[in-house]
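Section 3.1: Structural characterization of target chains.
Under the original work plan, the team committed to producing a structural model for every single-chain target entering the pipeline before any wet-lab resources were allocated. The record below documents one such target. The sequence was received from the expression subgroup and is listed exactly as submitted; it comprises 126 residues.
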Amino acid sequence: MVPEAIGAIANLINAWNANNQENKNDVQKKLDAVQLVMSAVVTTKAYLHDVETGVAPSREIEKDLSTKWVQASMAIIKYDRGLHEVAKIKSLGWADPNEWARAASRPWAIKLDTIIEQCQYILNNK
C-alpha cells in the first residue's frame, strides 16, 4: 500500500474517533441537562410535600429552588426551548411569588408532571 493511502486511512480513522467522542460528549451534556431539570423537579416535589403536610414555608428553600430552576433552564435550552421557558418561569416564581400570578394563565406550563414527561421525551429522542 502506498504511504499516502495509509496516511489517508489513518486520517479517516482519527476523524471517525474524534466524531465518535464528540457524539459521546453531546449525549453526556444532554443527560446532564435533563438531570438538572429532574433534580429541580424532585427538590420542588419534596418541598411542596413538606409544605402540604404542615412544614412552614421557607424563603431559604424557595431561593434554593429558584437557583436550581435557573440552572436547569440554562442547561436545557440547547435541547428544548419550551422546557427552558418552563424552567425559567419556575425560577422566577420561586424567587418572587408574585410571578406565579402571571403564570396562572398557563397552568400546563408549570406542572411538574408535564416537566417530567418532557424530560423523558428528550431522553428517548436522542
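The helical segments are 3-52, 59-76, 81-95, 99-103, 112-124.
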